[in-house]
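Side project, low priority. Logging it here so it doesn't get lost.
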Amino acid sequence: MRVIDFYSHVRYNVFMNNLVLIGMPSSGKSTAGVLLAKKIGFGFIDCDLIIQGEQNALLSEIIEREGPEGFIQIEERVNAGLAAMRCVIATGGSVCYSERAMQHLKSMGTVVYLQLSEQEVARRIPNLVRRGVVMRGNVGTLHDLYLQRVPLYEQYADVTIRCDGQTIDETVAAIAEATGFAIG
C-alpha cells in the first residue's frame, strides 16, 4: 500500500510564494525589502534582526564574539529554520556561504539578487568591520569579499536586479516588475 503525504506537498506549495532578497551588504535588501512588502501587501522578515534579537547583540559584536565561522553557523540555523508565507525576506549578505540555508530559501520562493558594483559597495560602506560584515577565510579587503561572494549570489539567484544608479523606489519597482507584481 502506498501512502501519499498530501500535507507535505501542500506545505511546500504554500511556502513557495515568498521573495528572498540576497546581495552584498548595503545593496538595499532591508530598505527595499520593507518598502516592497508594503507595496505588494506581504509581510517582511529581516534575518539580520532575527539574529541580533536572538543573540542580544549587534552583528559586529556577534562576529567578534563567535568569529566568522561561528556567525555563519548561527546565520545558517536561522535561515534554514525560517517558515514564512507571502513575505519579503531580507537575508544577511553572508547567507550565500551556506548551501543548506540557500537551498531552503530557494524552496520558499523566488531568490532576487540585488546586484551592486564593487565601486558602489565601497561608496556605501566605508568600514566593513564596523558594519558587521563577515570576512571569511583569507578575505581582507572589499575587493576580495566581492570576488568571493558574487559568484555565490549569481549561483543562487532566480532573478538579478542591477541597483547601481537606482533610487530605492526604482529598485523596489524593478523587483516588483521582475517578479510579476504590479505596483502603482
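Brief comment: The first strand starts at residue 18 and ends at 23.
Revisit when time allows.
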